[in-house]
Amino acid sequence: MEIIPAIDMIGGKCVRLSKGDYGTKKVYNENPVEVAKMFEDNGIRRLHLVDLDGAKAGHIVNHEVLRAITSATKLTVDFGGGLKSTDDLNIAFDCGASMVTGGSIAVKKPEEFTGWIEKYGSEKIILGADVKDRKVAVTGWLEDTDAELMPFVKSYYEKGIRKVICTDISRDGMLQGPATELYREMLDEISDLWLVASGGVSCIDDVRKLNEKGIPAVIIGKAIYENRISMADLQAYL
Known about the structure:
Layout: E1 2-10, E2 13-18, E3 21-29, H1 32-41, E4 46-51, H2 52-57, H3 63-72, E5 76-80, H4 86-94, E6 99-102, H5 104-108, H6 110-120, E7 125-132, E8 135-138, E9 143-148, H7 149-157, E10 163-168, H8 180-189, E11 194-198, H9 204-212, E12 217-220, H10 222-225, H11 231-234
Parallel strand pairs: 1-4, 1-12, 4-5, 5-6, 6-7, 7-10, 10-11, 11-12
Antiparallel strand pairs: 1-2, 2-3, 7-8, 8-9
Helix pairs in contact: 1-3
């Protein structure tokens, strides 16, 4: 199973939220580049970088932090948050992102997002399926939709998507365990999906259980920053 630490950014700083609520912001480090270097030094190869300012503003904001991280490390960075147009996509790639995650645009501008898939392929475009009560949420989780999770994912699978980051909003930042059974159900329906579990990971035992269920990858955020999971704990998976 691939281990993917997360850096969420507000104001160029490394932060975490609870359940996507911007009012719960907690700053963990003033310099995300230092955090990225620490991950790389401990054997991490991929980073999930989220522009929370961008998600709220509707356009990419913290692209210079992305550029700084990709310039200072060899990490494979997947970037999300605020990618609402092809201009945003181009900025992300120009600043060194290896992959981008589209969530809101996949719901609100499906033709444009489908165009991204056709142009860049399944290796570079990730579907962000943020879910609340099995329905997709958008705009940095500030807006619920009527889109059911699995029909939404399947529709883009048919268009070429193979990588999906699924975040259970009710669990994100709560350190109460991931939605392991939901992820297993998703893989039972689409067996070759590169599904990335996100939200709720609280301890190394959560990682072990996801691995045992055959989940291909996991994003870990607050559990690392709160010292509930150490880099030493993760060595067996690196």
